[in-house]
Amino acid sequence: MSHATGTKYLKGGILPHMWCSGCGIGIMLGALLRAFEELDYTTTDTVVVTGIGCTGKADDYMITNALHTTHGRALAYATGIKAYNPRLNVVAIMGDGDGVTIGGNHFIHACRRNIDLTAVILNNLNFGMTGGQVSGTTPPQRYTSTTAYGNPERDFDICALAEAAGANYAARCTPYHGWEMKENMKEALTKKGFSVVEVVSPCPTHFGRHNEMKETPDMLHWLRDRAISIEDYRRLPEAERTERLAIGTLVSRDFPDFNTQYELVKARAQKG
Amino acid sequence: MQGNHAIAEGAIYAGARFYAGYPITPSSEIAEECSRKLPKLGGVYIQMEDEIASIAAVIGASLAGAKSFTATSGPGFSLMQENLGLAVMGEVPCVVVDVQRAGPSTGLATRPAQSDIMQIRWGRHGDQSVIALCPSSVKECFTLTVTAFNFAERYRVPVVLMPDEIVGHMRENVEVPAPGELEVVDRKRPAGPPADYKPFKADEDGVAPLAAYGGEYVFHVSSSMHGLDGYSNNDPANAAWRVKQLHEKIDRHRDEIVLTKRFGTDDADVLLVTLGATTRSGRAAAIEARRQGVKAGVLQLQTVWPFPDREVAELGRRAKMIVVPEMNYSGQIAGEVRKAVGPDVDLRQVNRYNGTIITPQDILAVMLGAK
Amino acid sequence: MTTRSDHFEVILAGTGGQGLILSGILLAEAAILEGKNVVQTQSYGIASRGGLSLAEVIIDTEEIIFQQVQRPDCILALTEEATRKYEGWAAKGVPILYDSTLANARTAPNFTGYAFTQTASDLGNEMSVNILALGTVAAKTGVVRMETLEQMIRKRFKGTAVEMNLKVLAAGRDLTAR
């Protein structure tokens, strides 16, 4: 049996892509498109919604329906699409800036509303496109182009945020674990309700350079060495967890999604 | 019926089946009415987390095929501006209702103003055109809402309906038009082979057909500068063509878009240029002025943007005096009138900016006062 | 502006929570049912309870151009604050019906005090003072028929509230008989 390549969703003649060598966005996009193919997604019934930033350029490479939006608002646009036409597969592709920094309010409300979308959030720990400034997911005391002496703030745990806010599904992966990433994407895409796949990714050009990981593969190795499956992570003593990155399916549950709940509202309205 | 209810009813009459919003005084009755009516009709009412999300959801739903709208007031309208720019850039039909209240900032939340006129025209970054309509009665709340949807659909643009708080909260007896009585326009859909569909390739009327997500036509819409196919395109020649085309599709239909009403203007020595609730103050003042021997007439701007400059100039140059009553300090309409009629016309302003209404006496005092 | 006999303007003023905007709506709807043109406007503060709150209703057989009251034919004032705001009109011949429970007594011409709040309270529902006072205004001015208001109440309220409000409306009407 041949493996899915995802190329049928790629715009012809578009490669090579714009992202820096060592960046995880290409791997993320590849995993997503392979997941589309394995799930038999059609270009007509799929809408990709993107925001602004390196990750927000992903729609340029795709031939599904797409809406390239404003910074941080992709989930709100996606909510309108899905609420009006529940039949569509709606996927929001965002960076950590879009997803949980400027767009943090939309993220927690999309989780709470549990709208049946998939949010793919590429978390490269900083604002890559604009020159490596600090973001809501930059770890404390790390260096960026706007935290010259270290980040005084804490970082968001995207999956924990999703869980607390009510999402049905949250998974974390890294570009080092491409196969698992595709599997997580498939789980997320098929999960009814709001699902999040966080892809913790290298940004060798900015974050790596500022944080003693100058060579292109350094950050990838850093992620590889820190990553541990969620099952193993849970077995670790608390003290040993701090430097580790739990990957895999962190949250999977089945609260009713927005559209299902809204059908009840419509039924009640139409009865009265 | 209340003005705000008439707006909700007008939207539904025009075919709106999607509302996303965030409550704000003095617009919330529109949301409340939609939350009662839309689910009955199989439509969607969704309360979003803020106004930024509300207009985003409205645009998303429109691209999925809905006639969609939102309602807000000045503070919320400010929040919508960036995403409203996407509706301009992506040529997405939708309607935004800004029930104007007194500012600046939180200001007087329950009091009327007509001070968002320039925010509506210029509030977004980048250079662009916009259509805005202003009702002066409950009946016009209904009819101009239908018109707003028609313009949005016909020209693939966001349209702003800008009642003031007085009109939004006023109740009057109105005959609701029967189905079919008012024209209802639907956006042009593509007809050719799906593989050839280009979402920004305009027909001869300057407007491109718009497909809906989920149909046989697959398409890209982008906030970034894009080409005919909707994909990013940073070429200067392409950017120049896009910006020009966005302006021109409104400019070339200007005469269909500009709506005004005239009350006793044929022989008017004094021309009142009015919008919204001050139209009624102006009409009452004009009747009283004629009783006192002064020939006064009223030009009501139902369309505020594009500004009815030719209509103002035509009547204004014949008049001995123009009076512009408006509920703002800076004379946002008066400035446009001045641009239209030139520097030599006797132009007088009546401005109120304390959250109270301009009365006919206020206007008469300026109109009949010392010359 | 001139006042024609078929043009009627009323101000219903009080404090937020007394329900005067609803009184204005009921009066306006009753007038519509009687074939008149109406405009009802309101002015209120940001609080649902407290603060000056008022409804204006204009009723005419012809088109109503200016939507605000210019020269009231009657003023209802349910608080001292509202009575004070409008008391200047009494000297110009405008009848002011004020709530003698909540406002200080006035002896000047054109002031008529009614114990609106006390009467509503005696009937078991102080919150229905808006309907009670509406009954008084309608009986005093004759601007709409009492039966039309009763019809509006049957349409607006449900269950036991209908009978209660009809009773209160009648009590308001009867206040004018004293």
Notes on the protein architecture:
The complex is a heterotrimer of chains A (about 270), B (about 375) and C (about 180). Chain A is α/β, with parallel strands linked by helices and about 270 residues long. Chain A has helices spanning about 25-40, 75-85, 95-100, 105-115, 160-165, 180-190, 205-210, 220-225, 230-235, 240, 260-270, and strands spanning about 45-50, 65-70, 90-95, 120-125, 170-175, 195-200, 225-230, 245-250. Chain A has an eight-stranded mixed sheet, with helices on both faces. In chain A, helix 1 (about 25-40) crosses helix 6 (about 180-190) and helix 4 (about 105-115) packs across helix 5. Chain B has helices at about 5-15, 30-35, 50-65, 75-90, 115-120, 140-155, 165-170, 235-250, 255, 280-290, 310-320, 330-340, 360-370, and strands at about 20, 45, 70, 95-100, 100, 110, 130-135, 160, 170, 220, 260-265, 270-275, 295-300, 305, 320-325, 345-350. Chain B is built from 13 helices and 16 strands. In chain B, helix 1 (about 5-15) crosses helix 2, helix 3 packs parallel to helix 4 (about 75-90) and helix 10 (about 280-290) crosses helix 13 (about 360-370). The mean pLDDT of chain B is about 95. Chain B folds into two domains: about 1-255, 3-Layer(aba) Sandwich (Rossmann fold), CATH 3.40.50; about 260-370, Rossmann fold (3-Layer(aba) Sandwich). Chain B is α/β, with parallel strands linked by helices. Chain C is of the alpha/beta class and about 180 residues long. Chain C has a single domain (about 5-175), classed as Pyruvate-ferredoxin Oxidoreductase, domain 3, CATH 3.40.920. Chain C has helices at about 20-35, 80-85, 90, 115-120, 130-140, 145-155, 160-175, and strands at about 5-15, 35-45, 50-60, 75, 95-100, 110-115. In chain C, strand 2 (about 35-45) and strand 3 form a beta hairpin. The model of chain C has no long low-confidence stretch (mean pLDDT about 95). Classes of the chains: A alpha/beta (about 270), B alpha/beta (about 375), C alpha/beta (about 180). Chains in contact: A-B, B-C. At the A-B interface, strand 2, helix 2, helix 4 and helix 11 of A face helix 3, helix 4 and strand 10 of B.
- What is the percentage of strand-forming residues of chain B? 15-25%
Q: How far apart lie the N and C ends of chain B?
A: 42 Å
The helix count of chain A comes to 11
CATH homologous superfamily assignment of chain A: Thiamin diphosphate (ThDP)-binding fold, Pyr/PP domains
Helix content of chain B: 25-40%
- Tell me which protein chains meet in the greatest interface and how many residues each side has: A-B, 40 and 48 residues
